[in-house]
Design goal:
Elements lengths: L25 H4 L17 E8 L6 H11 L3 E13 L2 E6 L3 H14 L4 E4 L5 H14 L4 E3 L17 H7 L5 E2 L3 H8 L7 H15 L2 E5 L10 E4 L9 E4 L12 H16 L2 H17 L17 H4 L6 H18 L2 H8 L4 H28 L3 H26 L10 H15 L3 H28 L9 H7 L2 H20 L2 H28 L1
Parallel strand pairs: 1-2, 1-4, 4-5, 5-6, 6-7
Antiparallel strand pairs: 2-3, 7-8, 8-9
The structure holds adenosine-5'-diphosphate and the ligand Cc1ncc(COP(=O)(O)OP(=O)(O)O)c(N)n1.
The ligand Cc1ncc(COP(=O)(O)OP(=O)(O)O)c(N)n1 binds next to β1 and α8.
Amino acid sequence: MSPLASTSVLPPATPLAALPETPANPAAVRPAPVRSSAVQVLRDVPRVLSIAGSDPSGGAGIQADLKSIAALGGYGMAAITALTVQNTQGVRAVHVPPASFLGQQLEAISDDITIDAVKIGMLGDAAVIGVVRDWLEKVRPAVVVLDPVMVATSGDRLLQESAEAALRELLPLADLITPNLAELAILVGEPQARDWPDALRQGQRLSAATGATVLVKGGHLDGGACPDALVNAAGLLTREVVEVSGDRIPTRNSHGTGCSLSSAMATAQARLGDWEAALRKVKPWLVGALQASDQLEVGGGNGPINHFHHLQQVPAAGEFAETLRRASEPDLEAIYGLDFIRGLAAGTLSEEQFAYYLAQDAIYLNGYSRVLARASALAPTEAAQTFWAKSARQCLEVESELHRTWLSTRTVDSALGPVTKSYVDHLLAASASGSYAVLVAAVLPCFWLYAEVGQTLHAEFLAAGSPAAHPYADWLRAYADEDFAQATRDAIALADDAGRSASADERAAMLVAFRQSSRFEVEFFDAPRIHS
Ligand SMILES: Nc1ncnc2c1ncn2[C@@H]1O[C@H](COP(=O)(O)OP(=O)(O)O)[C@@H](O)[C@H]1O
Ligand SMILES: Cc1ncc(COP(=O)(O)OP(=O)(O)O)c(N)n1
């Protein structure tokens, strides 16, 4: 947030409440502001009006407000004060249409619709503020939340400096004022708060001066904590300061958090009728929206928050991979119980079965390489594309190594076996589905179960003292290759990412494809017993 050059109505460090009544001190001029209408009626779906500027990139302004109002269960309306040209990287231009046109929008809405709550955001200039003020005094909505937007996080001005005095005069008409730390400092005419106690003290000053409740926001504090607090100096809350603590979410995607918070608070207040309850409802929602923001992938700068994260039910990082792991547990157990695996571990497996397995593995790897190449073609990122392409190439290298070493010294029937055919057909079907996520889920068990089995058998081999006479010693050593273990971890992470970006239906299809491949892993290890 860039510092704002501003003349406060107050000399720094002068207690606001103690100021003489002058036109420059709105708090003193208006001790009994026209804050709200009669008794507030709580509604399940409150009708909430946002009076704010437009952000065409959808993260802040009225776009964020309408999403937040809907996310909190309200019916959203919007009267547009200004058009901005902006994206996640900054504001390029601002156009404020004639204030009289805003007046017409407000009249049209309030002539027809009962407004349960109003959120006021970007106002642009003094003429717009004057229109909003006149309208508020006439209509007197039950809940008025004022976000004193002055400067975007990018440092661009959203309120003309000359309009700051007019904005101050609007403050007493609000029930809740939601400045960030820079705006709070300007409004009380002090340097920006150095720490949280300092910010709370400034919030108390602003509340005392305006009569409004102030929501002091910790978004721009240093450190890992991100608290917010409601402050009311006139005894409207259960305590003068009601703090809701929170951790800082490590993300750049904080574009529009202030807009979203203020409109969500207006909506929650209209539903609950209690500011503390409203903040306790809104804060976890906002935290979830910040946590799920990466999923949106909007823009290269400070991206928007994910307003509807609670509807999308996106799994947390690692959660979908864990679901897959649990789904494969019965198949892993089944593999460990197979005669083939027990014989491989003990060194008692017949040469005939081992040779059949090797030959089928070579055939399988050729088909597997083709579907990995398809995963590379469908991959959403260059990193994923590279990973699958590399894996496809390695498969072909392992296949030729099998032929050069293990198979060249053996007499083996190299006809395509029924299990190999079914497994490869299943992978080809997943690749033909066109869904990267489903294909990645289908190819994963070959990495994951193979690596698990390999590590277990290798550990058993070491525990038995690495017997030199073991006929499959070289195979067991190769099984526990660290590069393959790393590739497996990468493949799991990519499948987890794909699952988090997928729709619920696609995730369900991923699980089906993964389960089917896991089952084929069992059958593949059992095939030598039946078909060799
Ligand atoms: N990284 C973050 N982690 C958690 N909460 C945050 C983070 N950044 C902002 N917030 C929250 O977003 C809301 C808006 O705060 P702030 O960023 O200070 O306002 P503004 O968007 O007006 O500059 C507050 O509830 C604040 O606690
Ligand atoms: C049209 C419009 N209104 C307000 C803002 C500022 O949004 P805010 O949520 O206060 O915070 P940042 O997006 O600046 O972090 C805006 N950018 N555009």
